[in-house]
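Obj.: predict assembly geometry.
Materials: sequence records (below).
Method: joint structure prediction, all chains together.
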Amino acid sequence: MGGLLSSLYETYQSTLAYTALNSLLALSVYTSLSCGQLALGSAGFAALGAYSAALLTLQAHWPFPLALAAGLAVPALLAVPLGLPVLRLRGVFLAIATVGFGEVVRLCLVNWEYVNGAQGIVAIPQKTAVWMIYLALGVVLFLLARLRGSKWGFALEAIREDEPAARSMGIPVARYKLSMLVLGAAMAGLAGALEAHFTFMVAPNGFTFGRVVDMLVFAVVGGARLYLGPVVGAAFLTLLPELLRELAPRVGIEAGPLRLMVNGLILLAVILFLPSGLVSLPGRLRAMRAARSPP
Amino acid sequence: MGQQAVNGLFLGSIYALFALGYTLVFGVLDILNLAHAAVFMLASFVALVLVSDLHLHLLLALPCTMALAGLLGLLLERVAFRPLRSRADSNVAGLISSLAAATVLEAVALEVFGPNVARFPFGTLPAGDPAHPLHLFGAVVSRLQLTIIGVAVILFLSLTFLVKRTRLGREVRAVAESPRAARVLGVNVDRAIAASFFISSALGGAAGVLYGLAFNSISPDMGRSVELKGLSVIIVGGMGSMPGAVLAGFALGLTEVFVVAHLGGSWRDAVSFAGLFLILVLRPHGLLGAVSPREA
Amino acid sequence: MRPSGRAPAILAFAALVAASPARAADATVKIGACLSLTGPAALYGAQQKAGIQAAVDEVNREGQIPGVKLEVVIEDDASTKEEGIAVYQRFIGRDRVSAILGPTLSNTATAVDPLAQSAKVPVVAISNTAPRGITDIGDYVFRVSLTEGQVIPSALKRAHARLHFGTAGVLYGNDDAFTQAGFGVMRGALEALGVRILGTQTFAKPDRDYNAQLTALIALKPDILVVSALVENAAGIVTQARQLGWRGPILGGNGFNSAAFVGNAGPAAEGVLVGTSWNRSSPDPANQAFLRLMAGRGVEPDQFCAQAYTGVLVIARALAASGGKGGREDLRAALAKVKDLDTPLGRFSFLENRDGNHEPALQEVRDGRFQIAP
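Observations (raw structure tokens):
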């Protein structure tokens, strides 16, 4: 029995790891969504965290916890000069500006010879264990849970619901938005650093526009109203490809297009019919059942 | 110098055509339609099928493809955007919805056409005599490039006429100003919005066909590079402004070409993003824009 | 017959039956192939899949491994390292393969091959051409695909001997590990030949417009244009260069070696020189048989196909040499000893460092086909 479990673990270890990594990344988008901001710079922040940590490990031989800390700090610091000008923009414009930021980071890395450009940094020692990622996720969730019932949490919700009203009530809107951006950047950076030390390498093509779109999708499908939502979304959508891999030959469609199609349809279904995400499903079902039963 | 200018105009006309569709929908609905690049890509494939399998002449295939692209736009509007119109966060939801639609469309293209790069058959567009190319301002210009710039200009002019001189155009502009006021004035808002999507997608489809012809490279991921550039163009030109999209499209094409010539290809994309940032930070309206990008 | 005489005879007969080898079914040895069947590298993955399936069928049909049936499990890594890791872990833990072919992309390989190394599962790389970071990972990682470092210098030398160019303009894709590594090698090889590089331009994989870069390079009037690009860019580059009036020679790297290049570039491809690890027009019987086989299966092969096919042949040879049991350690040892194997790529051996070794070639496109350059 022990042999079966350990063999299962060995086989699905990376799926477990990526479920937690993707949760962290989805949460990094969620922090801004929770105050109504569509900030999509997480791919850039993750890249900054990953590269900083990898370089410190390989070139400066820093101990792993310090390298991780740097991976967290570098993007957090850079989020400030980014956030100050762009957080004044609304909705779609903020999204575009932050996407642009992510692309600029990626382009700089591709063109920088010191980090080998497109070939990336290889032979990074594997220092991340799966439990470390879950520990990080746990800490983040704890933080977000504390935030929820506090003064911070209410302020964020007020900003999301009606920003001008929140401002007129005296809430320092700009400061809250920036803090959430910085927090998200730190989370993305940490995830990037953990990933780099898990997969032995890091390269610019891991931080494309497509990646941050994935993170947004995790958050929206899971539910962007509650901090547990992105985790549910990330878990669901990380496990889905593994399921589809089994299913595809039976249905007769190539695995790749099938996965894309299913992802797109799920996202469409959620946004049209279940806008508060998968986490709201139990509540909705309960309400439907209550409506159907006789008074 | 002249050669680079021609290169820039050529590239710019395609960017401008693509961006026009984006900005039209944004101006009317306040939504960024990320499925636009997928329509661009599918139109290219559809034209390929029309030309190589059904042996249609290009002059016929282009309008057919534009019409089909327009119909796809209508479908998108009906399925992915209309249900969200009454929601408070409609523009973010619309963005995500369009993203979902784009993913599905790309999956369809991948399944039906495969990942390979396809091209229009040789001779689709008469190439002229390679030994005696055309010269313009001391630069080599191919018939293909001239044709594409020409078609783009015709489309711009037609669009301007449509928007300024026809009743439909007036209705669309009214809805862009204020849907509520337009409804009060008796405009059929649903129809105006549907029409905008039709036109926008038809333009995007035209851009796709021209791009496929220009670079002879059609594949399911061909929208990727133009998608982000298109965003820069509409921001710089001003969201919702059609002349802005055209102006910024040409400006981006020319600037990119000159940057590449003098600084190297690595900096090409940096141009569009630098432009994006500068404008968003210094003049968020864009060069000719009217829509406010700041908080109300 | 005496009663006691029958029992020993029966026992002896029973012992004989029990001892004889099972003739009913061959033992099965499983190998895994981690290929990019979707995503940006799907073009190459598709060719690799065709080559691998053809090779496995051939190996089984000809009984190249006595008493063993070879079975291959092909999985898609979607051109990403996350999926690649998942696929490798399934191969190692669940499917318990004897060896792994792949992955398609060098970037993915640097993430997944270390897993195979530490699990002691032999890997035969069939398309990774990054000079460092592949076979350096460890002694379980082998490679049949020549690195650009092995192909380009000899190709350039041959072209130089024929064309005597003194200056060059270089264009390469800088957002892809393969083409970027190729550029590094091209630069070094040109300098070693004493050729002056007048200008260098870059492009990105999704780009389709190269007019600006080409115009800039052509204006410098080099003797030759040297290009490191993947197939989806190669055709466009060559077409646009000719359109801009470039009449001089063009030399491309491994990425050009595909029928798709000739098909898409059409007349513009005439005269283009391509340094390649697979000489398509080689008269070697192994190559001709391969071409016939693939034609029979309806596939127009490119070098990715040929390299994948060779990868299977190499594993088959090593399996046969190690007794066909499929034990990973034995297989590894046998792989290291593979020498002078006749493959479509030519006579193949592994070097000390487990990189592949065979004669690279210089091809020229003439009359719409790749032919050996004179």
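Conclusions so far: The mean pLDDT of chain B is 85.
To do: check interface contacts against the pulldown list.
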